[in-house]
Protein: Homoserine kinase
Amino acid sequence: MSVYTVVSQGELVEFLKDYDVGALLSFEGISAGIENTNYFVNTERDGRQLQFVLTIFEHHTFDELPYFLNIMAFMAEHKIPTAHPIQTLSNGYLKELKGKPAALVERLKGGGVEQPSLKQCEVMGEQLARFHLAGQDFSGFRQNDRGLDWMKTTLALVNDFFDAEQKQMVKEEFELQSGIDWHSLPQGVIHADLFCDNALFSGDELSGIIDLYYACNSVLLYDLAVMVNDWCRINSTDPKQIVFDQHKIDAMLQAYRSVRPLNALEQQSWNAALRLAALRFFMSRSKDKYLPREGEMTQIKDPAVFERILQIHRS
Ligand SMILES: Nc1ncnc2c1ncn2[C@@H]1O[C@H](COP(=O)(O)OP(=O)(O)OP(=O)(O)O)[C@@H](O)[C@H]1O
Ligand SMILES: N[C@@H](CCO)C(=O)O
Structure:
C-alpha cells in the first residue's frame, strides 16, 4: 500500500477550491506505485462526473516538478497519449498539500500491462517515436540524473555486495560505456522509465503513458532500449530463465523506425544502448536491495532480472 501521506476529506475539499473541477464526490488511495502517494479523486461539475488522479510527491522538490508536469501537458497537447495535468486557478500545475508538492492530473482509462501482446509492443514502439519527435520542440531542459556518472557513484556503494563474477562483468560494462560518445547520438526529451507498468492500455489501445518523473533530455536510443528490455521478453519466476521474444523486439523496433528512422550510428550503438539500459536498472535495483531507504515501504524489484538481461546482451 503506497499511501504515505494521508489526506482528509476536509483537506481535499480545501485543496480542490483552487481548481475548476466542481465538488468532491469521493476519493480513494491507490495501492500500486512505490514512489509517491496517489489517490483517485471523483468530482461533479455541472451535472457531469469527472475523474482525476491526485499525486503527492514524496521525494521531488517544488523546483524540479514543473519540468515533468510541463512535459505531460506538452505531450498531451501534441496528441501523445499522456495524462494532462489540471491547471490551478491561481498559477500553474503545482500546489502544496500537507507541506508537500502535489498535482491533480486527468485519470486515464485502462490498466497496466503484465504480459504485453505483440500488438501492444508495436503500439509502444510507434508512440515512443512520436513522443521523441514531439519532444524536439519542447523548450525545457533537465539533465539525466540516472546517467553513467550516477551509475558509477551507485556502483561504489553496492560493489562490495557483488560476487567476483558480478564485479568483473560490471567493471567490463563500465569500461565499454565510458568509451562510447553518447553525445554524438540524437538527443531529446526521453521518458527514461517506460516499463510495462507505466503505460495504461484498454485491450490493445494505449490510453496513456504515465509516471514521467524520470524524464530528462538525453539519448533517444537509450529510451528505446529501456523499453525493449522490459516489454519484449518472456519472463520466468527464475530470472536466469528470462529470454527475449524476437517477434516482439522486431514489432517494437519496426514500429518505432517507421516514425523515426534510426541513423547509422544509432544502429551501430544498439547493443551498447541495450547494455546501458540494463546496467542502469541493475544498479538502481541493487541499491534498493542492498541499501534500502529507511522507512520506505518498498516492494524490492529483483536486480537479478537486469543482471540476466545484461548477460544476454553481452553474449
Ligand atoms: N493518470 C492516471 N490515470 C489512471 N491511473 C493512474 C494515473 N496515474 C497513475 N495511475 C494509477 O496509479 C498507479 C500508481 O502510479 P505510478 O506508477 O505513477 O506510481 P508512483 O508511486 O508515482 O511511481 P512508481 O511506479 O515509480 O513507484 C498506477 O499503477 C495506475 O494504476
Ligand atoms: N521501473 C523501475 C522502477 C522505477 O524506476 C524498475 O522496474 O526497476
